[in-house]
Design goal:
By secondary structure, this protein is an alpha/beta fold. It has helices spanning 12-25, 43-53, 68-78, 98-106, 124-141, 157-161, 173-179, 205-223; strands spanning 2-5, 32-36, 57-61, 83-86, 112-116, 153-156, 185-189. Strands 4-6-5-7 form a 4-stranded mixed β-sheet. It has a 3-stranded parallel β-sheet with strand order 1-2-3, sandwiched between helices. It is globular and about 60 Å long. The chain binds uridine-5'-diphosphate (UDP) and magnesium ion. Uridine-5'-diphosphate is lined by residues 4-6, 8, 37, 65, 67-68, 71, 88-90, 92, 151, 200-202.
Length: 231
């Protein structure tokens, strides 16, 4: 389970206990890989403390804040499990979804299963632009997902070892997976909660940047190896 985080100290003990409970109840062997993305709060101390209590907890500490995509990418390189789950650190995603996500990968043959926060607990200023964003991402990528940027996703190990998540491309991981040849991409409705501690790390500029990155991906997948054909 890969958890990218930037200043989420208050959430980490609760999240860890919740993941541990789910893993134990389902007899899963697991690792929790915290990628501390240059936090300036006590997150790293909390991770070290959690690590000292449970060998399955592992941590990577970035020297500065690089962003959610590089954090996920580092997690992808290090992950050892046959099924890789990503989730946000802020308790908005529920670890209770893990067993069903695992089953969809191992038994239904999905390469990637993306969470769909059908009922969201976010402000309207975020949920409305998000609908527009997802409609555009569907049209450009040809992948029928309702919620491209859900932090809660499950992957077959092979997928995470064959994609590179750079810049802010975490919003389009299903598109990256499709471009790498992974075709069976599905979604699962997941429970969502309001942020319990701390604040969101992305402002409204997420939507502008999101569209620019989508244009980049569209260009790369269509004309990456024949740029002059664009003209
Ligand atoms: N995050 C990160 N690096 C960043 C920004 C965010 O690792 O530069 C983490 C953050 O701590 C959280 C996840 O990415 O675990 C999602 O961020 P957030 O909850 O702020 O996004 P939102 O839910 O508002 O879309
Ligand atoms: Mg959040």
């Amino acid at each position: 389970v890969i958890v990218p985080l930037y200043n989420e100290a208050e959430s980490l003990p609760e999240l860890t206990a919740w993941i541990e409970r789910v893993m134990k109840d389902n007899n899963f062997t697991y690792e929790i890989l915290f990628i501390n993305d240059g936090s300036t709060d006590e997150s790293w101390d909390v991770i070290k403390d959690l690590q000292s209590k449970n060998d399955c907890v592992k941590g990577v500490c970035f020297r500065r804040n690089y962003g959610k995509s590089p954090a996920l990418n580092t997690g992808f390189q290090r992950a050892q499990g046959d099924v890789v789950i990503t989730m946000d650190a802020d308790l908005q995603d529920s670890p209770d979804e893990i067993p069903e996500l695992y089953r969809m990968i191992t038994q239904e043959g999905y390469d990637l299963v993306s969470g769909w926060k059908k009922k969201r607990y976010d402000p309207l200023s975020k949920t409305i632009p998000t609908k527009l964003f997802n409609a555009t991402a569907r049209a450009v990528s040809g992948i029928y997902l309702h919620d491209f940027n859900c932090g809660l996703k499950a992957y077959r190990k092979k997928v995470v070892k064959h994609i590179e998540v750079y810049g802010d491309m975490h919003r389009y991981i299903p598109f990256l997976a499709k471009a790498a040849g992974f075709k069976k991409i599905g979604e699962k409705v997941v429970q969502h909660q309001a942020r319990k501690y701390g604040v969101t790390k992305f402002g409204l500029n997420r939507f502008v940047n999101g569209y620019l990155d989508l244009a980049t991906l569209w260009f790369q997948t269509k004309f990456g190896i024949k740029p002059m054909h664009f003209f």
